[in-house]
Specification:
Structural class: alpha+beta
Helix content: 25-40%
Number of helices: 18
CATH architecture of one domain: Alpha-Beta Barrel
Oligomer: single chain
Largest sheet: 9 strands, antiparallel
CATH topology of one domain: 7-stranded beta/alpha barrel
Strand content: 25-35%
Length: about 1000
């Protein structure tokens, strides 16, 4: 051991932090700044540079929250001796923490060419003109507020320009032309790598002692009066330590440069567009200096923004893509949430994402890159493979609160049995800087030791963008083969996955959803946005179905461009910090406005198509967009009128009210509690002694991540809300006031007489509260079913294991179901996603299952006004229901029948009919290639192997099985046709098939 280890380490720490940095740049000469403040939204380079600028000096305050200030910088390029590089150093007032969460700038040259970005970790701009020539730089500086306050999670007015004020946030600190001393900079990188490695080695390791002695000698060789002149000698003393190779058995890290850029979060979409330009400009600048650097970026939407906003910069990206150095990843439109979007939405994430990359670059990503989404649906593996992809990467499950994922490289099996090769980087971050600590963690935590020795490390500043820096690349090169460290190889996702797949012949299998034991509040926060998403998805299905039907039957034009625009709006809204409800207020103002505009557009398309299909006359035609018959109207067709609704009776009963039909009887107490529910079986389905239709108000004060989390500690101590229940026509109406809020629930019988329909309006004015609606049902279900994309998943209702206990709040789509043998109870909804489903009963025996929906939250951060205001939520409670009937109820609530008056047609036949009823048509559209072919998305909905017969409702020449991008699955993808003109298909449980019917 080194005799004075602690003292030497303290001396070295001071040397690295204080002695070297002042000597990185020499001979600074002031630049001359002038400024112009954009009055509102950002403007183009041409418009900005045509304005009148005011002279400013370092120390000048600038930048109202969310504002843009343009700086014009002039000066002279300094002369540089060999070993020195002239650079402009521009400090917009950066802090040393939270890169990407504060001011940023984009630098242009005199002709308007983008050079690179300015960020807290990246303040230098190379000056490549001749010495003595004039400098003219333009900086578009964004005054993005740091609304997260270094993760303090305090309510902030800065989340919207309406409340953020106008006081300048930043101070222009520096604008100089200076000379980068290359040897001093390289010496600093040498020290950084060895220092980081040393601290990860065991205290008694000979290698640790060797590194400490080498750094001690090198630091002593640096003359404080001549750091520049002695840096080279110091580097020579470090060379033996840096050149010692890694062991052949050392863990191999594929270092993939990337920048996780949230498409919106603590900034609006508008600012993300600029973050993309800044980050990609930084990457291109690094590529010019380092030929080994490879960069990966996901999200086709972000490339599309760059193409629109900065076509010249996009062309530079395209050139690097062609070289294989700028690698599009993921194959999705955005890095979407995967719990909340519908199945067809996830399909379109792939079709729009891959379609863009194929059209723009002629390449197709084979990986799915979702490092930060909040859990992963069990429907996803099948969709990944059906989209033509092979691999999946995530990082987020390292955030689990209680249980650690048992694998890092494995096969992930979906609900239909499809498996996809998956990697979960053991480095536990998607924003690595390739530090010694991070590389050591990746090696230490890797769980597949002995079977394989490869892992991937995504490196580069992320969330707010920025990407890799030259310091990170220096670390990568120095650790390519370094004794004591994992080996580091600059790489791409495809290179890693190809090698990992070859290296690991029999990986373990993880089956079903990958539930994140964290961020459970994201199934509920920002209810208006979630409702807007659900309604948009339904309207898109209707618009495509009826527009395709009108095109085939009436020869009308199919609105390809309008539908594409609507889909892109909805897909962007499914980004994993928008739809989950974890962004600032501005994001939701934009989202709700976009959903309203999209609804108007889709309603116009649907009305136009229905008018064409109905023809002209004096009748009424009723259209059903659902893939199941509703009230006698055929699936995806139209009839003259629905069946008469069931007769309903309301009678006083034991101080309360009885609401009944011939198939259902429900008894309520005077304050709104459902005390008894019997369906056609006559069996009581409310747990004896308990109350259903129970609104409960919980405290909602998570320890951290306010809008994201619901904590188990807040599940107790609920306040049960009670109101006044009175008859109103064929319904019962419950009025309830609580806190500063009010609630009205209209309780009626469904048109078929088999279910209770609950129409709830809430004026929500609470803070840090959670509103739930519960139904303790007398069904002893070991597992409950919940709809997910293209099927459903069964989750335990008990808490036998820590994994079960952690799943105390779960996502579901249109329905949940608790059943015993044959039948149970179904709870369907039109806009709700969060549930807790648990056993309920006495101390001595479990007697039932509690189905409880989370209706509204009121977090304070990042949007202190989250969910305030009026909300409408609809539910259906169906007793004696099978899972198939739960599916039907979900479609009924989400696809109400549409009536067209003055119709001439007596009916409209569907474009496709499937039998049996367990196989459903989720989507009917015209082919993306505009050939006029009809495309069907089919899925098996109940979880069993089954055959199906497809009948086309028009003269179809052939039926071809395709992938999600509507390409034939194989050379023999054409389905054989039966003598009766129909086609037979075989489905495995929850299988999704895409069929293309040629006209």
């Amino acid at each position: 051991m080194h005799p004075d280890r602690e003292l030497t380490e303290r001396r070295l720490a001071r040397f690295l932090a204080q002695r070297l940095p002042p000597h990185l740049w020499t001979a600074p000469e002031p630049l001359h700044p002038a400024a112009w403040d954009a009055p509102a939204e950002p403007v183009s380079f041409a418009e900005a540079t045509a304005q009148d600028y005011r002279p400013v000096t370092p120390g000048t305050r600038w930048g109202r929250p969310w504002g843009t200030t343009w700086f014009r910088l002039t000066g002279t390029v300094p002369a540089a001796a060999p070993g020195f590089l002239p650079e402009a150093l521009i400090d917009l007032g950066f802090s040393t923490d939270m890169p990407g969460f504060q001011a940023e700038g984009l630098v242009y040259d005199a002709e308007g060419n983008v050079l690179k970005a300015l960020e807290s970790t990246n303040m230098a701009v190379p000056l490549e003109q001749e010495p003595g020539s004039a400098i003219l730089l333009w900086v578009e500086a964004a005054a993005t507020p740091n609304v997260i306050g270094n993760f303090s999670f305090l309510p902030t007015p800065l989340g919207s320009p309406d409340t953020a004020g106008s006081e300048p946030l930043y101070v222009l600190r520096r604008a100089d032309a200076a000379l980068l001393d290359v040897q001093v900079w390289e010496l600093a990188q040498d020290f950084a790598v060895l220092w980081g490695l040393m601290h990860e080695l065991p205290m008694d390791s000979p290698r640790r002692h060797e590194l400490l002695r080498a750094m001690e000698r090198a630091a002593a060789a640096v003359d404080p009066q001549d750091v520049s002149g002695t840096a080279s000698a110091a580097r020579t003393l470090l060379e033996p330590a840096l050149s010692a190779p890694a062991a052949a058995s050392a863990h191999l890290v594929h270092a993939v440069g990337h920048a996780h850029i949230d498409s919106a979060w603590l900034w609006p979409v508008r600012e993300t567009r600029r973050k993309v330009a800044r980050t990609f400009a930084n990457v291109l600048a690094l590529m010019e200096k380092d030929p080994e650097f490879v960069f990966t970026a996901s999200s086709a939407q972000q490339y599309a923004w760059l193409q629109e906003d900065h076509p010249a910069l996009f062309a530079r990206v395209a050139a690097r893509v062609a070289e294989g150095r700028f690698v599009p990843a993921g194959g999705m439109w955005v890095e979407a949430d995967t719990n909340l979007p519908s199945g067809e939405s996830l399909v379109r994430q792939f079709t729009f994402g891959k379609g863009f990359f194929l059209e723009a670059f002629g390449i197709e990503p084979l990986d799915v890159w979702l490092p930060d989404s909040f859990g992963y649906s069990g429907a996803l593996p099948q969709l990944i493979r059906a989209a033509g992809s092979r691999w999946f990467l995530t990082q987020k499950l390292s955030w689990n609160e209680s249980d650690t994922m048992p694998h890092h490289t494995f096969l992930w099996e979906g609900i239909d049995g499809t498996r996809v090769f998956t990697h979960f980087p053991p480095v536990d971050t998607y924003n690595s800087a390739l530090t010694g600590q991070e590389l050591a963690r990746a090696q230490r935590q890797f769980r597949e030791k002995g079977a394989t020795n490869l892992s991937l490390v995504p490196f580069g500043w992320g969330d707010g963008g920025g990407g890799p820096t030259r310091e990170m690349l220096a670390a990568a090169h120095r650790t390519a083969s370094l004794e004591g460290s994992p080996q580091v190889r600059l790489s791409s996702p495809q290179e890693f996955f190809t090698q990992a797949e070859e290296d690991y012949g029999q990986p373990p299998v993880w089956s079903g959803e990958m539930y994140l034991q964290f961020h459970r509040g994201t199934y509920t926060s920002q209810a208006r946005t979630k409702r807007g998403n659900r309604r948009s998805e339904a309207l898109l299905k209707e618009a495509e179905l009826w527009a395709a039907s009108a095109a085939v039957r009436c020869g009308t034009d199919y609105p390809y461009q309008e539908l594409e625009a609507a889909w892109k709006t909805v897909l962007l809204g499914q980004f994993h910090d928008i739809l989950p409800g974890s962004s600032i207020a501005w994001v939701y103002q934009d989202a709700e406005r976009a959903y309203a505009e999209t609804a108007e557009q889709l309603e116009r398309i649907t009305r136009r198509a229905l008018r064409a299909l109905a023809g002209d006359g004096t009748g009424t035609l009723v259209f059903n967009a659902a893939p199941v018959a509703l009230l006698g109207i055929p699936a995806m067709g139209a009839g003259a009128g629905p069946a008469e609704p069931a007769a309903v009776r309301i009678n006083a009963y034991d101080g309360g009210w009885e609401l009944s039909s011939d198939r259902l009887t429900a008894r309520f107490g005077p304050t709104g509690a459902l005390l008894s529910l019997r369906g056609e079986s006559g069996r009581e389905l409310v747990v004896p002694g308990e109350e259903a239709n129970r609104f409960q108000l919980f405290r909602d004060t998570p320890n951290q991540w306010d809008a994201w989390d619901i904590d188990a500690a807040d599940r107790t101590g609920a306040l049960t809300l009670r109101g006044d229940l009175i008859p109103d026509g064929d319904s019962l109406v419950l009025d309830c006031r609580f806190g500063s809020s009010s609630l009205r629930e209209r309780i009626s019988v469904s048109p078929d007489g088999r279910a209770l329909d609950l129409d709830i309006n809430v004026d929500w004015q609470e803070r840090q509260k959670l509103l739930k609606l519960g139904f303790p049902v007398a069904v002893l279900a070991d597992r409950a079913s919940a709809e997910i994309q293209f099927g459903h998943i069964q989750r335990p209702t008990h808490e036998n294991t820590s994994w079960d206990h952690a799943r105390f709040e779960v996502p579901a789509h249109r329905w949940v179901h608790a059943g015993e043998h044959g039948r149970g109870v179904a709870l369907a909804n039109d806009s709700t996603y969060g549930y807790d489903i648990t056993r309920t009963g006495s101390r001595d025996a479990g007697t039932g299952t509690l189905l409880r929906a989370s209706l509204l939250r009121a977090p304070l951060f990042p949007d202190p006004g989250a969910d305030q205001g009026v909300h409408r939520l609809r539910f259906s409670l169906r007793p004696d229901a099978t899972v198939a009937e739960a599916v039907l109820e979900g479609y009924r609530l989400n696809f109400p029948l549409r009536s067209v008056h003055e119709a001439g047609a007596g009916s409209v036949a569907p474009l496709a009919v499937l039998a049996p009823g367990s196989v459903l048509v989720e989507t009917v559209k015209l082919a993306d290639d505009r050939s006029g072919d009809v495309v069907l998305r089919l899925y098996e909905s109940l979880g069993g192997h089954t055959g199906a017969v497809l009948t086309a409702g028009f003269p179809a020449r052939a039926a071809v099985l395709t992938d999600l991008l509507e390409r034939p699955e194989a050379a023999d993808a054409q389905l054989p046709r039966r003598e009766d003109g129909r086609w037979e298909l075989a489905f495995r449980p929850f299988e999704v098939k895409t069929v293309r019917l040629s006209r």
